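User: Let's play a game. I give you a shape written as tokens, and you guess the letters that built it. Ready? Here's round one.
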């Protein structure tokens, strides 16, 4: 994934921040209407919109505070000779401590 130019990433960050503010304002309007009309469904809708704003803000913070911005998770950044993957050789399972072996390995 190519990196975005600094002016473009700044515009994207400001657009996302404006979207979060708009979602919070909408959620507050829904909750005010719920309070005025005594409707529980509007209160739930306001909570859902507010949680969407929190999710968007979280993604925005994680994305734009990464070490290299939007390019941090690019798979092309790994050296060609590096191993990718997880080794489970150092994992000790409870039955390994008891000395139990699988019948195929016991022979």
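Assistant: Ready! My guess for every position:
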């Amino acid at each position: 994934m190519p990196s975005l130019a600094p002016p473009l990433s700044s515009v994207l960050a400001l657009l996302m921040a404006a979207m979060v503010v708009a979602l919070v304002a909408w959620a507050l309007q829904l909750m005010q209407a719920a309070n005025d009309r005594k409707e529980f469904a509007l209160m739930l809708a306001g909570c859902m919109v507010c949680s969407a704003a929190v999710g968007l803000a979280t993604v925005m913070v994680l994305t734009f505070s990464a070490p290299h911005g939007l390019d941090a998770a690019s798979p092309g950044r790994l050296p060609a000779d590096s191993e990718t993957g997880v080794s489970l050789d150092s994992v000790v399972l409870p039955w390994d401590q008891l000395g139990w072996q699988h019948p195929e390995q016991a022979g």
